[in-house]
Write a structure and sequence with these properties.
By secondary structure, this protein is an alpha+beta fold. It has eleven helices and seven strands. It folds into two domains: 248 residues, Multidrug efflux transporter AcrB transmembrane fold; 82 residues, Nucleic acid-binding proteins (OB fold (Dihydrolipoamide Acetyltransferase, E2P), Beta Barrel), CATH 2.40.50.
Length: 416
């Protein structure tokens, strides 16, 4: 029997499903099974959001108030510093552009020395203020304003995604915004409120997965399969992270930010915070792997409707091996790049490679990379297996001919 497929804009075969959903349609029993497995996980995520949602006022650290300002002039200090450091002392005329002193002009010291920013007239800057101090000593220069270059970069990124992916790209951008919103409105406040970090990370990651995957790829068995693969792999990642951060006796106090949080927020579990960061960090790579594997199996089934589930699994696994090789390398290099200044610091300290790697500050990045890599390795066969089971096999040609022959015989006998 000859199988005919219509082709869409992409040139890929179409089986009559909605745009972006290639592959053979899943049987009703498969859809019911996927829903039966996925529904309790979704309900558990909703229950987790309700139970872990932060309540009450969150802890805050009192500090200098920040205001926008513009540098009008930079000149040598009117009065030289008491100690001669060999560097030229400078001060700046600054106009305050926001806050209670909007429009006021003040003189502030300019940081100087090795590595100090080179402030110039016309620069838009951020200044810090001590509210109760006299106006002449109230402000200090903190940093440059970076809103405009960041806004330009965001617009360029969004435009490139939409031009390339059209409506799918727009949905992806909406998913990105939703992920950031979940982190800001739930994950961070819940951690500051003293909720268990690992539970917060798992619930937050599950919420991000459920909302963003369906928003980006639509409600379908294919998306649900990718979601199941991500959830199971992320659970494995969390369990492995818990084991090795506990066995390795990580305190979570290695970096300055965590140590500062430990000093100002007694209710924050820093070891759990380390584990939460591991789970959320692995999520972005895991959903990429599971979505790709699911899409590969669906396309393989569409290209060869007579392929068995066994052959689909084997072919998808071969694709996954190539994906794992590239993704694990990317994951390790991403963590190494983020820790590059620290690695340089240890390189000039004269410590040996083993001492450097086993230091908690570096070791926690090693655990993140390797545990995340194990999650990726597990995600490939797991997601490929679920996808190959969820794709419906098309009846064999000889079976189709047999059915037609029996139907024709039945019609002939009825006419006789």
């Amino acid at each position: 029997m000859e199988h005919r497929h219509s082709t869409g804009e992409s040139g890929l075969p179409s089986t009559g499903q909605h745009a972006g959903e290639s592959g053979l349609p899943s049987a009703p029993a498969v859809r019911l099974t996927v829903v039966a497995v996925l529904l309790p996980l979704v309900l558990a995520t909703v229950a987790g959001l309700i139970l872990l949602w932060p309540s009450g006022d969150l802890p805050e650290v009192e500090g200098a108030q920040r205001s926008d300002a513009t540098i009008l002039d930079v000149r040598p200090c009117a009065a030289p510093p008491e100690e001669d450091s060999g560097e030229e002392c400078r001060e700046a005329d600054v106009r305050i552009d926001s806050g209670a002193d909007d429009g006021v002009r003040v003189v502030v010291p300019v940081p100087f020395g090795a590595g100090a920013p080179d402030f110039e007239p016309g620069d838009r800057v951020i200044v810090g203020a001590v509210p109760d101090a006299p106006i002449e000593s109230r402000y200090e220069l903190l940093d440059y304003q970076r809103q405009m270059p960041l806004l330009i970069l965001v617009v360029m990124f969004a435009t490139a995604v939409i031009v390339l992916s059209r409506w799918r790209g727009l949905a992806s951008l909406a998913s990105l915004g939703l992920s950031i919103a979940i982190l800001i409105t739930f994950v961070l406040p819940a951690l500051l409120d003293g909720r268990p970090p690992l539970a917060v990370a798992i619930v937050g990651a599950s919420t991000i997965m459920i909302t963003t995957l369906y928003l980006s790829y639509g409600f379908s068995v294919r998306t649900s399969v990718a979601l199941l693969g991500t959830l199971f792999s992320l659970t494995l990642t969390g369990v492995l992270g818990l084991i090795f951060t506990t066995v390795g006796r990580f305190t979570g106090l290695a970096d300055e930010a965590s140590a500062y949080l430990g000093a100002v927020g007694a209710s924050i579990d820093l070891h759990g915070l380390l584990l939460a960061g591991l789970v959320i960090g692995a999520l972005g790579v895991l959903d990429d792997v599971t979505v790709t594997q699911t899409a590969a199996v669906w396309e393989l089934a569409d290209a060869d409707p007579e392929a068995s589930r066994r052959s689909l699994f084997a072919a998808g696994l071969r694709i996954g091996r190539q994906h794992v090789s590239a993704t694990v390398n990317t994951l390790v290099l991403a963590y190494a790049g983020a820790s590059l200044p620290v690695l340089l610091l240890f390189a000039v300290s004269g410590q040996g490679p083993l001492d450097t790697v086993t230091n908690e500050l570096i070791a926690q990045e090693v655990v993140r990379a390797l545990v995340g890599g194990l999650g990726i390795v597990a995600a490939v066969p797991l997601t490929t297996l679920i996808a190959s089971l969820a794709v419906r096999e098309r009846p064999r040609p000889n079976r189709i001919r047999g059915r037609r022959a029996r139907a024709a015989a039945h019609v002939s006998s009825s006419r006789a």
